[in-house]
Structures are given as structure tokens and as C-alpha cells.
Structure prediction request, 200 residues.
Amino acid sequence: MQGRSPQLSMELNRLLLLTSFLLHVEEGHASPTRLVCDNRLIQKYIGEAKDMEKRAGHCQALPALSCPTVLPLVDFSLQQWKSKSNEIKRQEILCDLALLVGAVAGAQGQVTQECGARQLSQLYQHANSFILLLQTFSWEAGPWEPGCSPRSMEQTHITGIFLTYRQLVQGKLRFFFHDLAKDLCKQGQAGGRDPQCGAQ
Prediction:
């Protein structure tokens, strides 16, 4: 096992992450859409994002990045968000995640400190797993291509990468899952709770 290449390890990790998502699916309903029907699941991912942000903040002597990373600006107007179709929301989140994954990869090449590198690796895996999940939802024919240009900013502080991810999961992703639940889940199965009543 020691001779396994980093690329193979990464692919195996991605397969394991996708499998872990699918294991949440209720037996007999092998569709990733079932994941949105349990409000506890997105709350779990929000909690994990907060934990990663907190652990990264506790890493000692994290250096500023000599080459800034480009992060998506993930703030949004709730009124405008509600007026968009689910497909547009999905594509917008995928664009944000693609840019975020690129930023994490860029930071990984500059961080040698063990604590920071470990947290970045975990963040990379989590963000990639959401990309895999969102690619299973599509209201348009054909594969998704990351040919988009989301609003962005440069960041030299590693903790800012974790903040952006947490805001994305707690914001757009949470509302997207809530919108899907209203359309795809049986009445009462999604809990019927507005996402604004959840985590802070």
C-alpha cells in the first residue's frame, strides 16, 4: 500500500466520499435526491464546516500566502435567490465550489505546516464531494462544464478559505437543499423547517 501514487489515493478518496454520501440514502430509494429530505444532514455538513474553520484557526503560525488565492464571493440576496430556478442555483453553487477547490489546491502548494496542510486536505475533499453530489442533480441535458466566472476576491489568509467554505455551505447550499426538499420530498419528510430557523 505504501507504493500507491498520490493521484490514485485522491481518486480512491473521491470514490469513498461519494459512497459515504450514497450511504445516507434510504434503502430502496437509490437516488441522491433523498439526501435533501433529512434536514439533519445539511446541519451535519454545516457543523463540519464550522469545525474545520475552528481547527484551522487554532493552527499555530499559519503563514500568509505568498501567491494569493482567488475565492468566490458567496454572499447573496435572498430575494434574488428565490427568483432563480433550481438549475441556475445548482450551476451557481458548482461555479463557486470549482473556484474554491482551485483556491484550496493553490494554497496546498504553499503550506508546508502539518496542521494547516491537514485541514486544507480535508477541506479539499469536502468541497469536491459536494461537486460530485451536485453533478447528480441536473435539469438540463449534457454534462456540467465549469465554464463560469463567479464574483471573486483575492485572499492571502488561509483562514479566509475556510470562512468562505463555511459561508457557502451555511448559505447557498443550505437554501438549495431546502428548495429541493420542497419539490422532491414527501410532505413532512423534510421537516418543513425554514433554513433561517437553523444554525447561526
User: Anything to note?
Assistant: Strands lie at 69-72, 152-155. Confidence is low (pLDDT under 50) at residues 24-31, 187-192. The radius of gyration is 17 Å.
